[in-house]
Fold this sequence. Notes:
Keywords: Acyltransferase, Transferase. Residues 26-172 form the N-acetyltransferase domain. It comes from Coptotermes formosanus (Formosan subterranean termite). The protein is α+β, with helices and mostly antiparallel strands. 28% of the residues lie in helices and 28% in strands. It is globular. The termini are far apart. Coenzyme A binds at residues 95-97, 102-108, 128, 130, 134, 136-137, 139-140, 143. Residues 95-97, 102-108, 128, 130, 134, 136-137, 139-140, 143 line the site of coenzyme A.
Amino acid sequence: MLPPKAIRTYRSPDPPIHTDTCRLICIGAPIRRTDEMSAIFLNKSKYGLSFYMQYLAHWPEYFQVAESPSGEIMGYIMGKAEGHGENWHGHVTALTVSPEFRRLGLAATLMTWLEDVSEKKRAYFVDLFVRVSNQVAINMYKRLGYIVYRTVLEYYSGDPDEDAFDMRKALSRDVKKKSVIPLVHPVRPEEVD
Ligand SMILES: CC(C)(COP(=O)(O)OP(=O)(O)OC[C@H]1O[C@@H](n2cnc3c(N)ncnc32)[C@H](O)[C@@H]1OP(=O)(O)O)[C@@H](O)C(=O)NCCC(=O)NCCS
């Protein structure tokens, strides 16, 4: 649990938090990388360190950590750019906000940031996968302009496996919004490109 001082400082920004109240930093500086990774990745994440390292190596521009002025990690987002032709898109691989800092608009800020990166890369859309049971996240993405493009059956392995929604938001390059015409039928994970 964070000390009360840190919580008090960031409780109620209204309008939602912006980059002047929470510093968005790219973890490109090696000296910071160790601290942040140990805090976020090793203690709080379901992914292994090598998974994150791979992303950092390939898509450092798609990796942002939100840090409070006093140094707490508030949340992070990581993603990548992939696909060919009109399937060239930005992808959100992980988005997490620490429970102490939720409902401050931080996830929305991180998503806007990733969309901006994708716009600069001339991507047609941004997509992400979310568990069909994760109603909080699904509602948030809908509020941010994402639609359910398709259902991916048993995308998440577990006991039992769980379906995913593949959600998308068209970017400015997709003038005719072709990327966000939902598929009628669900697909299997092996059909996802
Ligand atoms: C989902 C998650 C990233 C949201 O982060 P957040 O910083 O609290 O989200 P924001 O404050 O930017 O919320 C933006 C909007 O989403 C909706 N929303 C977010 N959390 C909500 C909640 N718990 N209940 C209802 N609506 C919610 C609201 O409409 C909110 O806007 P508002 O506060 O002005 O009403 C965070 O809850 C989290 O890390 N969850 C666990 C990890 C996870 O599920 N990640 C997504 C996996 S794909």
